[in-house]
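Data card: per-record layout.
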Amino acid sequence: MRRVLIVALVGLLLVGAGGCAAPSIGGLHIPGLGAGRPRPVPTVQVAIPTITTNLAGGSGTNFVQLSVTLGVAGPAVAKTFATQVAAVQNAILADVRARSAAQLDASQGMSDLAGAIQTSVDQVLGSATAVRAVYFTQFVVQ
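The structure for this 142-residue chain is written out next.
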């Protein structure tokens, strides 16, 4: 009985002291929790129109068709992206055309391309951390 009363009093004090404005864990409000921590910037996904192009080393006989979605660092970067769409597409196209069908078919081909695209688009957008992820939603090599 005494233990239940102590737990109830501690809970009442914590809830009463924290109010509704304090962060909570499991419904228990804890004053000062999270204070001074910046909120993480959400990743925003931006789709690039489908790209179809010839590949390097195939004398025009090999091509790739791909669709790319970029995960960018928040709404501000997405807004910057909207003003640089042609430059971003050009950077991606250059990265794709620099590769052969054999390079893209290799086990690391897509991940190497994704890394190159991330670096190129970061340069276009003027930030080393603008692109958080590169997602291929379609990828056909022929």
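Known properties of this structure: The CA atoms of residues 45 and 112 lie 20 Å apart. Confidence is low (pLDDT under 50) at residues 2-24.

See the next section for split statistics.
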